[in-house]
Design a protein that fits this description.
Rossmann fold, binds manganese (II) ion, 11 strands
């Protein structure tokens, strides 16, 4: 191996929406970054194609049964790994890990990056939401650093940098596009289709998060994510905010990606056109700025910026998220796991859109008070919640 002082990057979830955009962003600054590893769950053909184009040192596939086929198809000399451990190995060795895995399955990658004292560029919000206390402990590893890729949290991260004397933050405003069903009443939402729910007005994303955007569950999960990222005691990992200090503002143009209000009444916002390539570049380059511009605003096209309060009656998942965050422990893990089960059932045609929130709330009601202080506790909570949610689905279907 030749000496190479570029920043090494692990792209985990490389075949998904975040992963493919990360490869494009890195390709825009090849003198500064090199891709050390690529990993995907089970999209083997696309992973092989990427490995032959990018030529990383290590390629991993989540499904262990696919490892032999992967080994046969990557360039000679490429290390190959598989399973949860294979994905975690990618995160242990790179300077920066972009975690673009979908859902709770991203947790081992989140923990491996932080526990190795590396930078985690986190797009996989579910790992932080479900395993809050465990991830917070991992964030204390010397050298560990969590830079959010989720656009709202990347925006908040930027707005917080306007505060260089004291941490006088009083509120955070997380913006929401409102999704494809903004403005519809609960009754009008009774019979929406999968196609309608997948037709997001401003963001092109993977199916899971697109459905979550249509129910506002995504925004709810992002409130919990913001609480984990910025809510810890001031001077520690956070800014001493409580859940009441984190509000959701519907902003249909998706130009203002979130805001921070300071003690003197000033509100600082981050604005750009909706593209994930900006927050990906931000998380790679921080504290520097990525040299290539993404999402530059064309003001004549934008025209206007609108803001309104969310409709909690039509979109009950948002209130459920506040409730789960207030309950603490593994309650957010239960909510997120139930939601993964419900969304999967909806996407397979086995559940009405309007019933996703019911599965989520009934599962959350069964929460056993688990604290989630250990990884084992988090894994058990996730399993129990999935079991309850699956049972609710089965009963609803029969
Ligand atoms: Mn987001």
């Amino acid at each position: 191996m030749t000496s190479d002082d570029r920043t090494s990057v692990a792209v985990v979830g490389s075949t998904g929406s975040i992963g493919t955009q990360t490869l494009d962003v890195i390709a825009a600054d090849p003198d500064r970054y090199r891709i050390d590893s690529l990993a995907a769950g089970r999209s083997l053909d696309q992973l092989i194609e990427q490995a032959n184009a990018v030529r990383p040192e290590l390629v991993a596939v989540g499904d262990p049964s696919l490892e032999p086929a992967l080994r046969d198809a990557v360039p000679a000399g490429t290390e190959v790994a598989s399973g949860e451990e294979g994905l975690a190995e990618c995160a242990r060795r790179a300077d920066i890990t972009v975690n673009g895995v979908v859902g709770f399955a991203g947790l081992p990658v989140t923990l491996a990056a932080l526990e190795s004292g590396k930078r985690l560029a986190l797009a996989n919000k579910e790992s932080l939401i479900s395993a809050g206390p465990v991830v917070q402990a991992a964030r204390r590893t010397p050298g560990a650093e969590l830079v959010p890729v989720d656009s709202e949290h990347a925006a908040i991260h930027q707005c917080l940098r306007a505060n260089d004397v004291d941490r006088r933050v009083s509120r955070i405003q997380v913006t929401a596009s409102g999704g494809p069903f903004r403005g519809r009443s609960r009754d009008e939402l009774a019979s929406v289709t999968i196609e309608e729910a997948l037709a997001h007005p401003t963001w092109a994303m993977g199916p899971k998060i697109t459905i979550d955007s249509s129910t506002l569950m995504n925004k709810g999960l992002e409130v919990i994510e913001a609480n984990e990222l910025f809510g810890a005691p001031a001077g520690d990992l956070g800014y001493g905010l409580t859940l009441d200090d984190i509000e959701v503002v519907v902003h249909p143009q998706s130009i203002v990606h979130s805001m921070v209000t300071y003690s003197d009444g000033s509100t600082i916002a981050q604005l750009s056109m909706p593209t994930m390539m900006l927050p990906i570049g931000y998380a790679l380059a921080y504290p520097d700025r990525f040299p290539v511009a993404y999402g530059t605003i064309d003001w004549a096209t934008v025209g206007r910026l609108d803001f309104e309060a969310p409709d909690l009656e039509a979109f009950p998942c948002l209130a459920l998220a506040y409730q789960a965050a207030e309950m603490g422990g593994t309650a957010p893990a239960w909510l997120s796991a139930a939601n993964e089960v419900a969304v999967e059932a909806f996407l397979k045609g086995g559940l009405a859109w309007a019933d996703i929130s019911g599965i989520n709330s009934e599962t959350l009601e069964k929460h056993d008070g688990g604290t989630g202080l250990t990884l084992q506790g988090v894994l058990e909570g996730d399993q129990q919640a999935r079991h309850h949610a699956t049972e609710l689905l089965r009963r609803a279907g029969s």
